[in-house]
Design brief:
The structure holds two protein chains of two kinds.
Chain A (H helix, E strand, L loop, with lengths): L1 H10 L2 E10 L9 E4 L5 E3 L5 E7 L3 E5 L6 E4 L8 E3 L9 E3 L4 E3 L7 E4 L1 H4 L7 H4 L7 E4 L9 E4 L11 E4 L2 E2 L11 E7 L2 H4 L10 E6 L5 E15 L9 H14 L6 H4 L9 H5 L3 E14 L2 E13 L6 E15 L2 E16 L4 H4 L2 H7 L35 H7 E21 L2 E20 L14 E24 L2 E24 L3 E2 L2 E2 L12 E22 L3 E12 L8 E12 L11 E15 L11 E2 L3 E4 L4 E4 L2 E2 L10 E14 L4 E17 L16 E17 L7 E18 L15 E4 L2 E4 L6 E4 L2 E4 L3 H6 L12 E3 L17 E2 L7 E11 L2 E11 L2 E4 H6 L35 H6 L8 E3 L2 E12 L2 H5 L5 E9 L3 E3 L19 E2 L7 E10 L1
Parallel strand pairs in A: 1-7, 13-16, 48-53
Antiparallel strand pairs in A: 1-4, 2-3, 2-5, 5-6, 8-9, 10-15, 11-12, 13-14, 15-16, 17-18, 17-54, 18-19, 19-20, 20-21, 21-22, 22-23, 23-24, 24-25, 25-28, 26-27, 28-29, 29-30, 30-31, 31-36, 32-35, 33-34, 36-37, 37-38, 38-39, 39-46, 40-41, 41-42, 42-45, 43-44, 46-47, 47-50, 48-49, 50-51, 50-52, 51-54
Chain B lengths: L21 H13 L11 H8 L4 E3 L4 H7 L9 H23 L7 H26 L20 H18 L14 H14 L3 H12 L27 E5 L25 H5 L9 E3 L1 H8 L10 H6 E2 L12 E2 L2 E2 H5 L9 E2 L19 E5 H14 L3 H14 L5 H4 L5 H16 L5 H8 L28 H6 L10
Helix pairs in contact in B: 1-4, 1-5, 4-5, 5-6, 5-7, 6-7, 7-8, 7-13, 8-13, 13-14, 13-16, 14-16
Classes of the chains: A mainly beta, B mainly alpha.
């Protein structure tokens, strides 16, 4: 036998084949494995994509590289073979992560959205969720612009009144990616949307699941990558406010029109002060983002080490966010074992003045509403309560309650640090071919501290003169996860079986300590800022510990016959300590079927290369319950007095009720869809239609008094919400051979939200009918309608003359020409007035549809990419505009156009003072609960445009550099919208019930970036 | 390792970790008593509005328009705090008592204490339901710790009183005759008998009532109780928990208190009563409630055996002639009546005095330490007499009225009005109860029992001109409770 083998070998003489492997874009590819087909010879391309291999003549070389379609090339007698590999990003053969398993994309039966991380990396984003906007259908992302602010993500509508955020799984660890995971470290994002895809995460999957896989090293020589980006950010739009002279004139007229004496501060205005409060508060921000990584591997080991620094200096004074991150990902294969770990450490710091609430105001109101006649600071204003001499309103001069944001920035500060360790380690043991056991341990731990300081001083009219104060809060978060899974994979004939079964345990706890004190010790003008330097008698402390456990059994079974018929069954049982004995365990099953109709013999459509129909049904859980809610606690406060000494004796009793039968909110989801590849898979189409009904949604309904409850009413599983929608995702990647290459992907989705039940809310005092809604501000969440629709008075233009007023009975007692006419929906008979009963529904904050578009192209060494995002049909309530246009105690916009007898063609009522005592018409014009402030919030935004240039390989290879790329990009370059506010992408006053209320939303900035990335 | 899915809440004892020992049981029962101090809606203030001001003795005399309207039977909002909050707080007490009654039996502890604590809880539950039945007529009976989804139906008045009687009968067996000095204020056997008697009497079940009262009057308890020599001792802080006190709510002045919410763990609860601030005359308190003048005249009908003014009059009221020598001799919080009110609008005013602190202070506040003698022995004696008279044993009833009159220095009824028939005796008894118990909170119950409530009382108290028979005997059940529970029906004519 030996002899024969020798002779065969001799027959075919080996030749030395060399060449360069490139990507279709022309970039050389290091680390590509080049192997002899049918043999055991393997080499890897070097840093410049070059290889050299000795193979027999007429043999075949196989080129393999992750993320690219494998290619086979006949050698013949060629000694030079240069090839270009096609990226496999849209190919159906690549594998996708689906939770505890990876499967071929072509075998997917659930609704899964993939995000091209090439696109998300182009965005300047503080956190990953923010970058998901518009990337895939069915994922609604609302972004705020504040440094460190978290985006609101809702997958496929809103099915709960509690926490509606999706579950994030980072490299198998269930953890929160917000603001701590560097988007640069992310390799892959999969979004599990329907029950079949998400059911493996059971009780927590109802809001959808986002699987994040971080970058790994690839076998081959060390690769160093350095990226740096510097950006400047600016708010693209502000309200155009009056200057001092304009304000004085308008305010004078307003007071006179209302029959009031002109304000002393306005009457005596001498032209000396003209403060531009917008200028004082708003500036140019900057974002710095630097990352370096080294990766590589060989002999069964792979590694990636990366570090990054991110700093976002916001556009508002005294606000910034900073993050340093470090990551080590490795994997080693030895025999039947595979060991790996992914670990990331990040340290974030955010700094800001006090913000929010009536106390600190909101700069997005105050910078516009502050009166230009008031100086920012003036020695003449120094007083006991105002040692800084800050300028603000006064009843005796100019009556305004706007907060002096510059003063707040000087007097107060909040500094928060988050040091977070997030990672996992695993060992995978191959028991036999096709059967692997994996043990995975994950950890997320965070050491947080937040210190807020308030020095002496005041920043608004009538502020209570509080002591200086300090609060120092510490918190430690710990979550760990242990998972045992068995993966199996078995093929025989046309049958293919794979799946996973597993058992997991997770423990999550938060340990808080709060301390505060007043009257800080001062040394000159400096303050000591530790708790020991506060006055002893006002010192306070408290703390609590919150912990829960989760044990789960999970399993998935996938079966495929001849790639044609696909079945996927998924199951999870979760046992959760947050529920009472009888309800701790919940079961979440799902089933999905797929039919690759294009593989059927009868299916003969040339231009359809692949067509798969999918259907799934399943039950998911939504877990929004806080710890210890199911069981009543004993209140330690009730005391009683007994005895001749009238002594107080301690008591303890349950005072707040608890629902002992609290359980998961449950969401039943049905999904139908298809995936198609057309024209040789150049055009891919994914289509889904779904309906989900959540039930047992937790609410705090009112309780009858006879139960004796004190404190907030307990949660009860009582609500039900339906969401249904359609999602379409289309990608086109032409087969091009020239220098110009491009591809495009677009998506569109629509979700219709409807409340089915809110339980027994008693009787509505307004109508005497059973109450079927929850009111929140100017929105109403009512059975039969979508969550948080506006419920306001309807305006009907301006009264032009007395005859029109007389005809309108409800307002005739007080209205004057120039006042707003409201629709008197409910005729209240004699003495009728416009009141709350006249309110009507005025639209929903949910877009009718949202859409995203991504276009990538290259010409030779240049690249150009565009990303668009649009949301259409949503209504926004502009509360800032309400404040500015109500003729109250604020500055006026330059654009106001008040009605006068000679200026009748306007939507602005006559000018007056909002709070005039003897002019009810003026008072009524300033009503907040009217559709005057409800606007169309539709918008189309150029999320990103990037122009890049890669230096030619020839030029840089001499310096041993494999790639140098320069780019310039613009984010949020333009937004097409009719919305009058600063940014129609509004997070909302209350993420669930008032999602479209712009109450001083921090607008997204326009960000211009310059970037450089270098690879070695 | 073992994972404890039943782990305790580390931030507070829970229903699972609590109710484990005698100390827990004691804390539990203390919390039921704590209900007395909770908010303004019970014995800190509003129970006195319901029992005193709403009756023909008093009226809403101050600036609280809502109160004044309610006192003149003009209520349109059935969720009005004065009625709805009292209902709610009585049920807070019921919820607390139910927790003790349900949870303490399983505790392994000293058996005597255990039985006593459960009996105290039953006494308190009975007291809460007595008030719910008296003022709201048909309360739903919550007898287990509440659950959020509980939707009980109304009990009938008979059922509700039957439950009160059942609780009291059970409590009597295990309550002690008396307590050591450190525990004065807890429910005693005598208190339970007295409240049981009141419960039966309110239903005119004279025999059962007499049987209950007899424990205190002629039975084993008769040695425990006696009338104090000085009537006034029952209303001053230096003579609290005296021999006449059958059940007394203990108040103390806590200067560092910062809340009336007895469940606010971050603050200190007020264990005093604020009624003195609201009943004290102008210049001292808010004078939200005052007395009708006709009550004073009732006292003036009869002099003592020494020809003096009935001493109970000045003990009961502040008015111009509290000292018979007139306004210049009558002292009101350290000043003469004359100098305070002269000929001004308040010159003819009459204010309830029994709950005030003018005997030791010249001002009032929100945390009066003056205990409220909820049931006095004199009340028991008069009720016992009413029972005997109701049983047509009128002659036997005389001695008990005599004891009360003698203590006030009046001639005995045997001497003053011998040989009254049953009807005449009841009429006389009404006078006796008014003069003995004015301004103590039982007048409304008396009028209701006697069937005297009606527009006819308008001659004494103009507020009664708005009284609708068949309606205003009861308060409305809070509308919210009706709305949230279709099993619950509103009171007639509301």
């Amino acid at each position: 036998i030996n002899k024969n083998a020798f002779e065969i070998k001799k027959n075919k003489a080996d030749i030395q084949v060399t060449g360069t492997v490139t990507a279709s874009s022309g970039e050389t590819l290091p680390g590509v494995s080049v192997s002899l087909k049918g043999g055991n010879k393997v080499v890897v391309t070097d840093v410049n994509g070059r290889y050299s291999i000795s193979v027999p003549e007429n043999s075949t070389l196989v080129f393999n590289y992750i993320g690219y379609t494998a290619k086979e090339v006949a050698v013949g007698s060629n000694t030079t073979i240069n090839i270009a590999l096609e990226s496999s990003n849209t190919a159906l053969d690549d594998v996708v992560v689906i939770g505890y398993q990876t499967i071929r994309r072509k075998d997917l039966t659930g609704a899964t959205g993939s995000v091209n991380t090439g696109n998300t990396e182009k965005l300047v984003s503080r956190s990953l969720p923010e970058a998901l906007q518009g990337q895939t259908p069915g994922v609604a992302v609302r972004n705020g612009g504040a440094p460190g602010q978290e985006a609101v993500v809702n997958i496929r509508g809103l099915a709960t009144f509690g926490n509606a955020s999706p579950l994030y799984v980072i490299d198998g660890m269930i953890a929160d990616p917000n603001t701590t995971v560097s988007p640069n470290d992310v390799e892959d994002i999969q979004i599990l949307k329907d029950a079949s895809a998400a059911a493996i995460y059971g009780s927590r999957a109802g809001n959808g699941v986002i699987l994040i896989t971080t970058k790994k090293g690839k076998e081959g020589p060390a690769k160093i990558s350095i990226t740096s980006r510097y950006s400047i950010s600016q708010v693209p739009k502000t309200y155009d406010m009056m200057d001092a002279a304009e304000y004085a004139a308008t305010n004078t007229k307003a007071y006179q029109n209302s029959g009031m004496a002109v304000q002393p501060g306005v009457a005596n205005y001498n032209g000396r002060v003209n403060t531009d409060w917008v200028d004082e508060t708003l500036g140019t921000g900057s974002v710095q983002d630097y990352n370096a990584s080294i990766s590589g591997g060989g002999n069964g080991s792979k590694y990636l080490i990366s570090g990054g620094y991110f700093k976002d200096k916001g556009v508002l004074i005294a606000r910034e966010f900073e993050r340093a991150s470090f990551r080590v990902n490795t994997e080693t294969t030895k025999g039947r074992f595979k060991f790996g770990e992914n670990i990331a450490f990040s340290s974030s710091t955010s700094r800001s003045p006090f913000q929010g609430g009536a106390f600190a105001g909101n700069p997005w109101y105050d910078m516009f509403s502050s009166v230009p006649l008031i100086p920012v600071q003036d020695n003449a204003l120094i007083s006991t309560n105002n040692p800084g001499g800050w300028g603000y309103g006064s009843n005796a001069s100019i009556n305004t309650f706007s907060r002096n944001q510059t003063a707040i920035a000087n007097i107060t500060s909040v500094k928060s640090n988050f040091a977070k360790l997030l990672g996992n380690a695993y060992v995978d043991f191959k028991i036999i071919d096709g059967l692997n056991y994996k043990f995975n341990a994950g950890i997320e731990t965070s050491f947080d501290k937040s210190k807020s300081i308030r020095k002496d001083g005041s920043w608004y009219q009538n502020q209570s003169p509080d002591f200086s104060q300090l609060s120092d809060n510490r918190s430690q978060f710990l979550s760990y996860l242990l998972e045992h899974t068995l993966n199996y994979n078995y093929n025989f004939g046309k049958h293919s079986i794979n799946g996973v079964v597993g058992y997991t345990e997770q423990t999550t706890q938060t340990d808080n300590t709060f301390g505060s004190g007043v009257r800080l010790t001062q040394s000159g003008n400096d303050y000591f800022t530790t708790l020991t330097t506060t006055s002893g008698d006002g010192r306070n402390s408290s703390g609590n510990l919150s912990k829960y456990l989760l044990n789960s059994y999970l399993g998935r079974f996938n079966y495929a016959y001849a790639d044609k018929y696909l079945v996927s069954l998924t199951f999870r049982a979760d046992k959760d300590s947050r529920f009472s004995q009888d309800f701790k365990t919940g079961y979440f099953p799902s089933a999905a079927l797929g039919w690759r109709i294009s593989k059927e013999d009868f299916f003969k459509v040339d231009w359809i290369s692949d067509l798969k129909l999918r259907g799934s049904f399943g039950i998911l859980g939504i877990n929004t319950l806080a710890n210890y809610e199911y069981i009543g606690v004993l209140n330690q406060a009730p005391d009683a007095v007994f005895g001749t000494g009238q002594t107080t004796y301690p008591g303890a009793i349950q005072s707040r009720l608890a629902s002992g039968d609290l359980r998961w909110e449950e969401k039943k989801t049905t999904n139908l869809g298809f995936d198609a590849g057309l024209f040789d898979n150049r055009l891919t189409v994914n289509f889904d239609i779904f309906r989900s009904i959540s039930k047992d949604v937790l609410l705090n309904p009112p309780l009858p008094a006879y139960v004796g409850n004190l404190g907030p009413t307990p949660l009860v599983n009582i609500g039900s919400v339906q969401n249904q929608g359609i999602e379409l995702n289309v990608g086109y990647r032409p087969k091009l051979d020239g220098d110009f290459k491009w591809d495009i992907a677009g998506n569109i989705s629509t979700v219709k939200n409807k409340v089915l039940s809110l339980g027994n809310l008693g009787i509505d005092a307004e109508t005497g009918q059973p109450k079927n809604y929850i009111q929140s501000g100017n929105t109403r969440t009512q059975v039969g309608r979508s969550i948080g629709e506006y419920y306001v008075l309807k305006t009907d233009g301006i009264f032009q003359n007395q005859a029109e007023i007389n005809a309108h009975k409800a307002q005739s007692a007080y209205a004057k020409p120039g006042d707003i006419r409201y629709v008197n929906t409910v005729d209240g008979g004699t003495n009728d007035d416009i009141n709350d009963k006249d309110r009507v529904f005025a639209g929903s904050a949910f877009p009718k549809f949202t859409t995203g578009l991504q276009f990538n192209s290259s010409y030779k060494n240049f690249s150009l990419s565009l990303q668009l995002y649009g949301a259409f049909g949503q209504k926004l309530y502009n509360d800032v505009l309400r404040e500015l246009d109500s003729y109250g105690n604020s500055n006026y916009r330059k654009d106001i156009n008040p009605w006068t007898p000679t200026n009748t063609d306007t939507t602005f009522p006559r000018l007056g003072y909002q709070f005039a005592a003897n002019d009810r018409g003026i008072n009524e014009n300033a009503r907040g609960n009217t559709d005057r402030w409800v606007e169309d919030g539709s918008f189309l935004r150029l999320r990103n445009v990037e122009l890049g240039y890669s230096f030619p390989t020839k030029l840089i290879s001499k310096a041993n550099i494999s790639s140098v790329r320069l780019y310039v990009s613009a984010q949020n370059l333009f937004t097409i919208t009719k919305y009058s506010g600063l940014d129609p992408d509004v997070v909302g006053a209350n993420a669930n019930l008032e999602p479209g209320v712009d109450n001083g939303n921090y607008p997204s900035s326009r960000i211009i970036s310059f970037g450089l990335s270098v690879g070695f | 390792c073992k994972r404890d899915f039943e782990m305790d809440n580390p931030n507070a004892p829970t229903l699972v970790s609590f109710w484990k020992n005698g100390a827990d049981a004691t804390k539990g029962i203390n919390a039921v008593y704590s209900t007395f101090y909770r908010t303004a809606s019970l014995y800190s203030r509003w129970m006195f509005y319901h029992g005193i001001l709403k009756s023909d003795e008093g009226f809403g005399s101050g600036g609280d328009g809502g109160l004044n309207n309610l006192m003149r039977f003009n209520q349109t909002n059935y969720d009005d705090g004065l009625t709805a909050q009292t209902w709610a707080t009585l049920y807070v007490g019921v919820f607390r008592a139910n927790q003790v009654i349900t949870n303490v039996p399983a505790i392994s502890m000293d058996d005597t204490s255990k039985k006593r604590i459960i009996a105290e809880a039953k006494f308190l539950r009975a007291l809460f339901y007595f008030n719910l039945t008296l003022y709201y007529g048909r309360p739903p009976l919550m007898l287990q710790p509440s659950q959020p989804r509980d939707v009980p139906a109304n009990a009938t008045t008979e059922q509700a009183y039957a439950q009160v009687a059942k609780d009291l009968n059970e409590a009597i067996a295990d309550l002690p005759v008396s307590y050591p000095a450190t525990d004065l204020g807890r429910a005693t056997k005598g208190a339970a008998y007295a409240l049981l008697g009141k419960t039966y009497l309110q239903q005119k079940m004279y025999q059962q009532a007499a049987d209950a009262f007899s424990y205190l009057v002629t039975g084993a308890g008769s040695s425990t109780y006696s009338l104090t020599a000085d009537y006034r001792d029952n209303f001053i802080i230096t003579k609290e928990n005296n021999s006449e006190s059958v059940f007394e709510i203990q108040f103390s002045e806590n200067l560092s208190e910062s809340t009336d919410d007895d469940t606010d763990e971050s603050r200190i609860n007020n264990t005093g009563t604020s009624i003195s601030q609201f009943f004290a005359p102008p210049g001292v308190g808010f004078s939200d409630g005052a007395a009708r003048r006709w009550v004073v005249d009732e006292f003036l009908q009869e002099k003592t055996t020494t020809n003096a003014q009935d001493p109970r009059l000045a003990a009961s009221f502040i008015f111009n002639n509290a000292n018979p020598a007139g306004p210049t001799a009558t002292i009101v919080y350290g000043q003469t009546f004359q100098s305070r009110y002269g000929t001004g609008p308040d010159a003819n005013g009459v204010w309830f005095r029994k709950l005030l602190n003018d005997h030791w202070k010249n001002q009032e506040g929100f945390r009066s330490p003056n205990n409220y003698r909820l049931i006095r022995y004199a009340d028991v004696l008069l009720m016992y007499a009413e029972c005997l008279n109701g049983l047509n044993r009128t002659a036997e009833a005389y001695p008990f009225v005599d004891r009360v009159r003698q203590r006030a220095g009046l001639a005995t009824l045997t001497v003053a009005k011998p040989g009254l028939n049953q009807t005449q005796f009841l009429t006389q008894l009404k006078h006796e109860r008014l003069t003995e118990l004015a301004g103590e909170g039982w007048r409304w119950a008396d009028l209701a029992r006697w069937g005297d409530l009606g527009p006819g009382l308008a001659s004494r108290d103009a507020d009664f001109s708005g009284f609708i028979v068949g309606k205003h005997e009861l308060y409305p059940i809070p509308q919210t409770d009706i709305d949230l529970n279709s099993n619950l029906k509103q009171n007639p004519k509301y």
